[in-house]
User: Fold these one by one.
Assistant:
Number 1:
Amino acid sequence: MGGLSDRFGRIARDLRISLTTACSLRCTYCMPAEGLPVIPRDELLSASEVARLVGIAVHRLGLTEVRFTGGEPLTRGDLVEVVRRSAEAAPGIPLALTTNGIGLDRRAAALVDAGLTRVNVSLDTIDREHFAALSRRDRLPAVLAGIDAALAAGLTPVKVNAVLMRETLDDAPELLAWALDRDVRLRFIEQMPLDADGVWTVDAMVPAQELLDVLGTRFALEPAGRDDPGAPAELWRVDGGPGTVGVIASMTRSFCAACDRTRVTAEGTVRSCLFADDETDLRGLLRSGGSDDELEAAWRRAMWGKPRGHGVDDPGYRRPVRTMGAIGG
Ligand code: SAM
Ligand code: SF4
């Protein structure tokens, strides 16, 4: 079995499948205030379609990790079923969830029972008012309950992702202190130009270095490498360890050259890169009786066209049409 390669020699290992574009929050860096247009249920991949694609990805394309994302995957009533069927299709493969955590308190145990192995919860600040302003919903207690439930269900280490925003930059030290205390792994991510309102600018973006300066006012940080050489997060040991904080500098220190991701949208199209609008429809093939050979070939063709990088600094750069919540981050 050959790996899922592109014309620049990168091999995809990590599959991100979006399950929905619906969400319980409206983070300003992601969604419009009114939410994304609702996708009719029958246009979303079903649990069995997701599982079939997971099986092909693992057994034919050599992918070694699967992550469910969205929109908010916990808004899917059949999420436990999606996980269970995917685990059956690809036994032993890590199955992860990227979530805002709302509703995880009620479902964490069932998800683990179905085969979920990891969870990343997105949380930008533990200041309730700032959280409500940034996500346009006053739901911080529900997110914190979700994180507690993930820890209790043994989904450790729980990772927490925070997008770097000017409005919450001063909250970063408090968020890190909270994360160290709860033993969750915090990673900050530079904001990408994938917001629905189209207001991202390079000047307004908080660069990773500015975060490090702010954290440095309260903590002693030493470089601690990466989890593995291709991992996007650079780690920093905090106050001598063992706790660390991760920084994903997607914009100022792009890691496109080491990108190992392939993405499937909630409507079943393959997307080779967050920033590339070209998509290849797999749902049509799935529903018209396409064979595994045909699905594999279509997926390989889609990834061959993966661009070299996000191109944000190129003179002819244009924002992708889909926004983060519509792609699946
Ligand atoms: N709703 C889930 C969540 O928030 O974790 C899953 C989907 S969300 C689109 C996936 C990740 O993308 C989250 O960690 C979120 O913070 C991140 N994200 C969204 N918009 C972003 C942007 N413009 N730049 C960087 N990260 C972004
Ligand atoms: Fe929803 Fe996640 Fe986007 Fe926030 S980042 S609006 S929680 S999809």
Number 2:
Amino acid sequence: MSKFTGKRLNGITPYVAGEQPQDKQYIKLNTNESPFPPSPFAQRLARESAGDMLLYPDPEYSTLCNIAAEKLSVKASEILFTNGSDEALNFAFIAFCGYDTPAVFPDITYGFYPVFAALNGVPKKVIPLKDDFTIDVKDYFNAGGTVFIANPNAPTGIALKKSDIEKILINNPENVVVIDEAYVDFGAESCVSLINKYDNLIITQTFSKSRSMAGARLGLAIANESLINDLKTVKFSTNPYNVSRMSAAAGIGAITDEEYFKTNCAAIIKTRAAFTDGLKSLGFTVLPSTANFVFAKNGNLSGEKLYSELKTRGILVRYFNIPRIKDFVRITIGDNKDMEKTLGAISEILKVIK
Ligand code: PMP
């Protein structure tokens, strides 16, 4: 760190993103991207909007909000589009946490939550998951701060039922509860329909996973108008034009092309089931996933060893050097061919290390 950094940056450990290697072609199963290209219609609208780059975009992204609102059965004023859902989450940390309002989240969850807390000078209250990596909802009753829960959770893939999230909402009348639905389209229950039932609920979603647009950086927050206005105060105080014209245009195409989205989600869910069976037959414990990845371990080799053996075979997965989960690897669900190759490589690795 330079001698010029302000206090706020002291001791900050930035989020460690998954590797994005540029040196060679890997089967890339480490950052939960989609194996499918973005919808052709989304691509077309993005291309067509390129000529308008000379102008700033509409900072309200009205067309995009209207189309998303119709799809989600909410009002356009109940949506805020952001530069990836990471930005929506950061806005929520800025708006709803403070030195006397901690951020409350599980010990094993999305690694950006502690980073946003640190960067914004927010204390954190970390609640351990149960031994089976599930959340005990009672642990979050009257949480004493702003709750952040990824549903399904990452990297475990395990989801809470909507009725369990309702219990958390009911038992936090004084706290905002942020439900991060980055992976919800792969089999979990969304809580979007609850935004007007509970005045303390914020949902974040992303186009990075189920809509194959990680490179476009498009996410959103969905909540009642009052909470969305709070988030807008942060946005208009930092970056009013936070989504590029081309990403906003692609977003319109991706939402419109519902069939393409549904087909891809169904394919991932099917491949996930086959891959999970394959891993289990190789002696793995696989946590029940409703995401586009699985979290798995095998008693015969550590997560780090499996990660590095796969990497030498041209397959990238994610391993976390965190005591509770160091035996696990997180493997993104790609297409059938890539997952078959991955199973083949894992089976070979298990034979070699014996
Ligand atoms: N939440 C969770 C749980 C994630 O895993 C990710 C992806 N790393 C995000 C949010 C953010 O995704 P994006 O900014 O691409 O929308």
